[in-house]
Design goal:
Layout (H helix, E strand, L loop, with lengths): L1 E6 L13 E6 L2 E5 L5 H7 L8 E3 L5 H4 L2 H10 L9 E4 L3 H10 L6 H5 L1 E4 L5 E4 L2 E8 L5 E8 L5 E4 L7 H6 L5 E5 L15 H11 L4 E4 L7 H12 L4 E2 L5 E3 L1
Parallel strand pairs: 3-4, 4-5, 5-6, 10-11, 11-12, 12-13
Antiparallel strand pairs: 1-2, 1-14, 2-3, 7-8, 8-9, 9-10
Length: 251
């Protein structure tokens, strides 16, 4: 299983960057986890957009879904149209949210007509060919879902935190995982909303989960990257990697 970072920015993009988007190759399938602002253009650097098998969305904030719009335009009006539409797996309520978004310019069904759309069962398991995904609810401003990804018959596990504040549910989902891709959006603890993690809080979750490897993501380039890494490493108790666009990780 291979993970490629297409975008690691928070709700505003880094210079020449993109918001949340991660390309996962699992067996013979290629999945996109989240599709935030700027991700569609980054996806095209790594292959044909019309060859993507599926997209899975962790939650419905703009920095995780907005590039579904240009993606839908490409599938609908572009010169190459796939014989089989990519699957788009949304959290509960996702269809209504995207219809409301696209309806602002009179095209409510733009996204659902471009993709094979469904809403996943947060308490169930989602199979996309050999790729198996589980979800868990994590605290955020809006309903947000951490994602476990593995390949059928293979023990290795990748866990993505999505956007979240400190919580025990993520610790349990990530327990013993091979790679934890975890957000560290804020420099100081979010004591009012408990909706995002600091690097120290992310490192603590990874340590408590016993993750073999930790990759910090969803932090802005206005932060000192060396300091982000140092704070995460101190809490984790070992070296960490920082997500960067184009970086790849084998799981």
């Amino acid at each position: 299983m291979r993970l490629t970072v297409l975008g690691k920015s928070p709700s505003w993009a880094d210079r020449d960057g993109a918001c949340s988007g991660y390309l996962a190759s699992v067996g013979d399938r290629t999945l996109l986890i989240d599709c935030g602002s700027g991700v569609f253009g980054k996806l095209r650097v790594h292959g044909r957009y019309d060859a993507l098998d599926a997209i899975v969305i962790s939650h419905l904030h703009a920095d995780h879904v907005l590039d579904l719009v240009p993606f839908a335009y490409a599938l609908t009006y572009g010169p190459t149209r796939p014989a089989v539409r990519p699957r788009l797996h949304l959290p509960p309520g996702g269809r209504a949210v995207l219809r409301a978004l696209c309806g602002l310019w009179g095209s409510e069904a733009l996204i659902e007509d471009a993709f094979e759309l469904d809403e996943y069962d947060v308490d169930g398991e989602l199979a996309i060919g050999p790729a198996l995904l589980r979800f868990c609810r994590v605290p955020h401003y809006a309903p947000s879902h951490a994602i476990e990804l593995r390949e059928h018959g293979v023990a290795a596990r990748l866990v993505f935190s999505a956007d979240c504040g400190p919580n025990d549910a993520l610790v349990e989902l990530a327990r013993g995982c091979d790679l934890l891709l975890i957000e560290a959006t804020v420099a100081e603890p979010d004591l009012e909303h408990h909706a995002h993690l600091t690097a120290e809080e992310a490192g603590d979750i990874a340590r408590r989960a016993g993750a073999a490897r930790m990759v910090v993501t969803h932090f802005s380039d206005v932060l000192d990257a060396d300091l982000v890494a140092a704070r995460a490493e101190q809490a984790f108790g070992g070296p960490v990697d920082l997500a960067a666009e184009g970086a790849t990780f084998e799981v």
